[in-house]
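Collaborator request, handled under Task 6.
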Amino acid sequence: MKINTNDLSGYALDWAVSLITNPDWSNEDRAFNTFDYVDTGDPEDVAYSPSTNWSQGGEIVHHMGIALDPVRFNGCVVSWVAYRPTQEYGDYTGDTPLVAACKSFVASKLGNEVDVPQEAL
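Structure tokens returned to the collaborator:
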């Protein structure tokens, strides 16, 4: 199913990131319900979730040069915007900095739409 990159969230977003960061994973490894069992190389062997885990997603922010800006309403941060100064796809938003950054990363590599299998939604 084609999903707008800015609409990706949860397992579907992590699945899309894994297409780029772990191209050698099998479709079975990449299935949303098996991320907990994939050897991520993390010394603590935690689940692969770059959209929620700074030790995984933070590397993407750093290496890709993704800029993050808070969106404020009445002085409170209500969401985040991520972008790359050289990215032609625009800004990507999320409830957290990592969600916004992962969307920006996916867009920079896969475009504004991603074909996500039903089981990853």
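The cover message to the collaborator said: "Strands lie at 2-4, 67-73, 76-83, 92-94, 113-115. Residues 20 and 111 are 12 Å apart (CA to CA). Please let us know whether this matches your experimental observations."
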